[in-house]
Known about the structure:
Blueprint (H helix, E strand, L loop, with lengths): L1 H7 L8 H31 L5 H12 L1 H10 L2 H22 L11 H11 L2 H20 L7 H46 L4 E5 L5 E4 L2 H6 L8 H7 L5 H13 L3 E11 L4 E13 L7 E8 L1 H50 L10 H31 L7 E3 L1 H18 L3 E6 L6 E3 L1 H17 L6 E9 L2 E8 L6 H4 L23 H11 L3 E6 L5 E8 L14 E5 L3 H6 L14
Parallel strand pairs: 7-9, 11-13
Antiparallel strand pairs: 1-2, 1-5, 3-4, 4-5, 6-8, 9-10, 10-12, 11-12
Helix pairs in contact: 1-2, 2-3, 2-4, 2-8, 3-5, 4-5, 5-6, 5-7, 6-7, 12-13, 13-17, 14-15, 15-17
Amino acid sequence: MRGVLDRLVHVDARRDRRLAGEHARFFGARLICFGLACAVLTVSLAYRSGLSMLDLTVLGSVLLLLAPVAFVSRTGDIELGHDLSSLLLSGSIAALALQTGGLNSPVLSLFAIVILDSAFCGSRQSLRVAILAGALGLALVALSPVLEGSSVMAGRYVAVALCAYASAMALIFLGRRERQASSQIRSQARAKTALDTVGDVVLWREAGGEISFANAAAHQQIGIDRRLFSEALLIERINVGDRPAFLKALSDASHGAGHGSAVIRFAVETEAARSVRMFEVSARRVGSADGEAAVVIVLRDVTERHAADELREMARLEAERIASSKSQFLATMSHELRTPLNAIIGFSELLIQPGLMPPNDPRRDEYARIINGSGEHLLEVVNAILDMSKIESGMMTVDQDRVDLSAVVASSCELLAVRAAEKSILLQQSLAPELPEIIADRRALKQIVLNLSSNAVKFTPAGGEVTVTAVRDRDHVEIAVVDTGCGIAEADLLQLGAPFFQARQSYDRQHEGTGLGLSVVRGLLGLMGGSMLIESAPGSGTRVSFRLPINGVPEKTSTEPVKIETRMSARRSALAETAFTPAPSSVRLTA
């Protein structure tokens, strides 16, 4: 039967599955009615000797059913075929009714078939034509004289026609339902296949909370078997701190605006390894907004994008730091270089012009000392800049020789003794007995001690104290410089060691200096495998300590400057006693 219907469908309608189905249903209903009517007439002739007028009318009506079938099969115009079928069927019903009692004939009930056929299988326009055809058929029966006939046979024909139509409609609707079910299955299979090709994890969460679907990416990306997927297992893999954001996104999708989003850290377990990755969560409600509804959850791996964003942010901050350092460098250098140069130029002009400075003037020696001091200051500034440049470029190297630590500390203190005496500062040493020789760079170690001690003298007011201590701690030595100066605020303490930074700095600073001393110390300690700690508080003085390995460091050690550890301290007495935790057998001397 299906093959016959497919061959009857017009060639133009075969290109459209929906239109081909409409043609097949149109043909099927009429062919089924035609076949049942022929069967009834055959049985009727077997019990009677001839055909009555009613039988001939029924036979003609049955044959007329084939006319719309042939028309639609030839032209493909199903709309006009429905109209033609309604008119022919209404005329046949009217003819049968005139032979079986007119307006009292049971055949008139067949007009319902005309209307229902157009309603179920046709369009709105076909339904209008069918209603008009039925009305014309009734008018024809009402206005025409009634012919004599057998009402008993008419009732049988009506019953057969109704059964035939009901059977045809039942078959049509059964086929339609099967096709819809098959189409739905194919659609679901296509959707599942499409979702399995998506790289993002797609989950379907039912209103009750259970996850009824997970695509293939659920196993590929987060290592959870799609058959074992559950909401509890999903939440268990989410970082504890990110779970509230995830649950809020689900709540917003289920009960709120209909959509929610979050960024979470997720524990991924694959065959290769276990790792924590960043996922972007997008949840959207599916269905009615009244009460609970299903939610579609999409998890997108944004680990690489998140890392790239962090790198861009770090690059931006580094660019800002470099720009700030450049500005600070220009501001600092203009102050540090211009001041001694002005002194050198001004006082040297006085010396070279006899009219301004007589040869025997006692001020000539003083001016010469000022010029000498300014030159030395310029040399210190240039050396600090060169050392910092070499450290940052990786060109600075250190030699590892046996160094007497006590001698280095003593010589450094001797160099600063005159400056400390000028400010009435007590500069003293407190060294543990039997300090070992260490493997280090003598020049770099002396520069570190000098820079730290010089800073302590610079920032300690008149009448204060600066103490340099040295002790052994297992396989390290620890050197500390403790002062009774003004101390450092917490905000400044965190920035110490940055190039050109000086606590409470401004362009008219009270203390001269480039702000490179601690930066150079950090770089040199990094080259020698050391570490550094600064403890201070406003009004409580400052303690700067560093540690070095006794046996030196292996070659090709990292040349990165050390990170300065900082600690706030409120009591002066604690500064001299606080240090890196020593071994129980270590000797600890305090100022």
